[in-house]
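Progress note, sequence design subtask.
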């Protein structure tokens, strides 16, 4: 089944262009969400230009099994095995101790094509980029470099990219989001929806986004961890608080 849209940042191959066949086979990167007429802006690398292309003229750039890192192999497995286990923790535990060769074997048994691998990873990356303030099974340590890097990445995202992440979160099964993104493992379905709503609000309010990014750059790791605990202990409300925005942006990677 052909995708109805591609995540911003996904690598794609142009195909089926009858009026401009010379572009078929060119590789590009998706730069926008779909327009009303079903087109997405794609930066075509060989031409160094942006083209508005119909979704039906795009396909994920194939990604070979051998090229996958251990983290990517596990991401694919968790996504593919989600239908066979209702226990997210158990699914993750089943991968513990497997070496890269074992993981490759299991992926090869579940994947139908290299294009499917690319599609799974593109959506997983999109989900990760739109992470909200989350409760995790173990709270990771956060360095000042992590904070600055996260703030820099967020400051470079366009409103369209933020809206794309929000739309992707709404379109995906919440259970799949929790499996593919450990940072969202502790969120309920309602909290995932709220995170998407907050992200969309920020895409429409540049000042809100700028304020959150600036605060991220000045916060110490200890302050960020205190904010995490406050968020976890507080019942979420529809209006996005600054602390929720900051933690949401920090997990964009």
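Output:
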């Amino acid at each position: 089944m052909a995708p109805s849209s591609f995540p911003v940042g996904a690598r794609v191959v142009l195909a089926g262009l009858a009026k401009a066949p010379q572009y078929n086979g060119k590789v590009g990167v998706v730069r926008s969400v779909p327009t009303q007429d079903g087109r997405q802006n794609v930066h075509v690398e060989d031409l160094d230009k942006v083209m508005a292309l119909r979704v039906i003229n795009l396909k994920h750039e194939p990604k070979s099994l051998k090229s996958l890192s251990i983290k990517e192999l596990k991401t694919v497995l968790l996504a593919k095995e989600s239908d066979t286990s209702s226990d997210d923790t158990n699914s993750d535990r089943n991968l513990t101790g497997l070496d890269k060769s074992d993981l490759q074997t299991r992926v090869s048994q579940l994947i139908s094509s290299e294009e499917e691998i690319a599609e799974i990873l593109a959506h997983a990356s999109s989900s990760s980029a739109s992470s909200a303030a989350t409760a995790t099974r173990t709270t990771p340590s956060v360095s000042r470099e992590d904070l600055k890097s996260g703030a820099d990445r967020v400051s470079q995202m366009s409103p369209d990219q933020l809206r794309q992440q929000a739309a992707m979160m709404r379109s995906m099964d919440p259970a799949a989001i929790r499996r593919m993104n450990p940072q969202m493992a502790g969120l309920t379905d309602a909290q995932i929806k709220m995170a998407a709503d907050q992200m969309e609000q920020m895409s429409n309010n540049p000042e809100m986004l700028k304020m959150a990014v600036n605060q991220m750059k000045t916060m110490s790791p200890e302050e960020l961890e205190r904010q995490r605990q406050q968020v976890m202990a507080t019942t979420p409300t529809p209006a996005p608080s600054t602390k929720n925005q900051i933690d949401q942006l920090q997990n964009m990677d």
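The longest strand covers residues 39-44. Work on this subtask will continue into the next period as scheduled.
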